[in-house]
């Protein structure tokens, strides 16, 4: 049984400390980001500009990180005006972790859930 393309994308995305930090921030945006003029932090997501500033990287680097996370199904994007906002996709993370668990541990092992 081979890993799904989305799980391989998850592994690529999770292999970078900055991308892992972004996922952690997006898990609780009000805790990690100031209120925005446009878009609600929880409903619409966090503006790319705020992520780039907090991460301390250039806009192209931030855009590349978000593209990798989006391609892996770990974040969803939403455009409002000229701004792009990102939200965490817990279902994408859970799906990739479950696939990885089935592949490495076996189908008889419990799968991951988004419950803490």
Please write out the topology.
Blueprint: H1 5-14, H2 17-27, H3 29-32, E1 46-47, H4 48-55, H5 59-71, E2 75-80, E3 83-88, H6 90-104
Antiparallel strand pairs: 1-3, 2-3
Helix pairs in contact: 1-5, 1-6, 4-5
Q: Mind explaining what this structure looks like?
A:
- The chain is 53% helix and 12% strand.
- It is α+β, with helices and mostly antiparallel strands.
- The protein has one domain (5-101): Orthogonal Bundle (Arc Repressor Mutant, subunit A).
- A three-stranded antiparallel beta sheet has the order 1-3-2.
- Helix 1 packs antiparallel against helix 5.
Computed over alpha carbons, the radius of gyration is: 15 Å
Helix coverage percent: 40-55%
The share of residues in extended strands comes to 5-15%
Number of domains in the coordinates? 1
Any guess at the CATH architecture?
Orthogonal Bundle
What is the string of SSEs from the N terminus onward? HHHEHHEEH
The overall pLDDT, averaged over residues, is: 87
Largest sheet: 3 strands, antiparallel
Query: Would you identify the regions where 5 or more consecutive residues have pLDDT less than 50?
Result: none
- What is the highest CATH level, the class? Mainly Alpha
Q: Give the overall form.
A: elongated
Total helix count?
6
CATH-defined fold name:
Arc Repressor Mutant, subunit A
What's the CATH H-level homologous superfamily?
A: Winged helix-like DNA-binding domain superfamily/Winged helix DNA-binding domain
Distance between the termini: 29 Å
- Topology, number of strands: 3
What structural class do helix, strand and pairing data support? Answer: alpha+beta
